[in-house]
Amino acid sequence: HVTKNNDLTSIALSGLTTVSQNLTITENYALTSIVDISSLQSTGGMFQISKNLNLTSLASMNSLESVGGDF
User: Fold this and answer.
1) pLDDT value at 60 more than 90
2) Whose CA, among 9, 20, 37, 64, lies 20 to 30 Å from 58?
3) Contacts of 36 (CB under 8 A, 6+ apart)
4) Global confidence as pTM
5) Element (DSSP H or E) covering residue 48
């Protein structure tokens, strides 16, 4: 979980292919971009990106094949 970090402006997830549980990125109000998420293929649980009010850039998720919970 990446939650309520008001100093976070960018997240790079390079090389991340699988998350066995939930992937949650929420309420990071300074967050403007999520980069290098194109390798992500699956999550075992929920995939949630929400309430990041300044998020303007989300890199391609073309490799995402499976989400085990809510999307």
Assistant:
1) no
2) 20
3) 12, 13, 14, 15, 16, 59
4) 0.88
5) strand 47-50
